[in-house]
Every structure is written in structure tokens, then in C-alpha cells.
Specification:
Layout (H helix, E strand, L loop, with lengths): L10 E4 L10 E7 L4 E7 L4 H12 L1 H15 L10 H19 L1
Antiparallel strand pairs: 1-2, 2-3
Helix pairs in contact: 1-3, 2-3
Length: 104
């Protein structure tokens, strides 16, 4: 499994505040150093919600990598031998880091 979308670290940034015909305003973007991945057009009262959504989207590549790693490690599970706890701990740490980025 390989992510074939925009490469590079995705971060939440501020938009230029472009307004649409319906009065919606762009407030946040998810961007890399090279391009904007996603631009959030929001209506009044949804600023906090849009920022939370942007944070979740910015963590998407890391969440995918963490979960892929976790799946790869648990694929070798043998009930007689148990998990290799060192590798499982590393995969768990990576997963928690990505989830924390999305939620905080």
C-alpha cells in the first residue's frame, strides 16, 4: 500500500480569505511547501469546526502510514509466540502521534 497523493508534510495554514458568490469565505488551507492540498470555504459560525477538519486532513498521510505500519506488524502474529512487543510498541507510538496531531 503506497500513498499516491501529494508528497511532503501537510500543514494547516491561513487562507487569503477569498469570498465566494454566496458569501462563504476561505479561512484555512491544508498545504505543503509546494502547493495547497485543500482550501476550506466556510460560512459564518463554522470557523472552529473547519479548523478541526483541516487538522484532521493534514494528519491523513501520517495516519495512513501509522495504520499501514501497525497492520504490517500485526500480520505476523502467531498465537503460540505472541507479538514482537518492541515492533508493536513502535507502531503503536507512531499511530498515537498521528492521531494526536489530528485531534489536538
Amino acid at each position: 500500500m503506497e500513498f499516491k497523493g501529494t508528497k511532503g508534510e501537510w500543514k494547516v495554514g491561513k487562507s487569503d480569505g477569498i469570498k465566494t458568490e454566496k458569501g462563504f469565505k476561505s479561512k484555512y488551507v491544508v498545504e505543503t511547501e509546494e502547493l495547497v492540498v485543500c482550501d476550506f470555504i466556510i460560512s459564518k459560525g463554522y470557523k472552529k469546526q473547519s479548523k478541526r477538519d483541516a487538522k484532521l486532513i493534514s494528519a491523513a498521510p501520517e495516519l495512513l502510514n501509522a495504520l499501514t505500519s501497525l497492520l504490517n506488524e500485526t500480520r505476523h502474529y502467531n498465537p503460540k509466540c505472541g507479538f514482537n512487543t518492541l515492533y508493536l510498541k513502535e507502531a503503536r507510538t507512531e499511530s498515537l502521534k498521528a492521531i494526536n496531531k489530528a485531534l489536538n
